[in-house]
Q: What sequence folds into this?
């Protein structure tokens, strides 16, 4: 289900998308561009949530196939690899980058 975004958010997301994917050819390069941008713009480690569980986002990377951006999450004593768009950050300024990535994924 697509979330409803404002025109202001759409413009912001489109600027972030342009920054992440500029000079990228093909989906592998675009995912790599996203992973780099998110890693630069989201300070890690940082507090986050997965669902209702508190966790720590330790690292941002692409999956082994270069198909999606993932977050390496420390949840209690476990480390998990989750889709970055499933991570909720307490820092709303950093969260806008994840929201832009999620928007890009939905809009394709």
A:
């Amino acid at each position: 289900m697509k979330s409803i975004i404002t025109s202001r958010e759409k413009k912001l997301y489109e600027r972030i998308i342009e920054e992440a994917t500029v000079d990228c050819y093909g989906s592998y390069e675009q995912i790599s561009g996203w992973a780099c941008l998110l890693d630069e713009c989201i300070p890690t480690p940082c507090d986050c949530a997965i669902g209702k569980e508190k966790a720590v986002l330790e690292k941002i990377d692409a999956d082994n196939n270069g198909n999606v951006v993932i977050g390496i999450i420390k949840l209690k004593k476990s480390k998990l690899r989750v889709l970055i768009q499933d991570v909720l950050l307490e820092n709303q300024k950093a969260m806008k980058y994840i929201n832009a990535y999620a928007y890009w994924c939905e809009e394709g």
Q: What stands out?
A: Residues 7-107 form one domain. The chain has three helices and five strands. The mean pLDDT is 93.
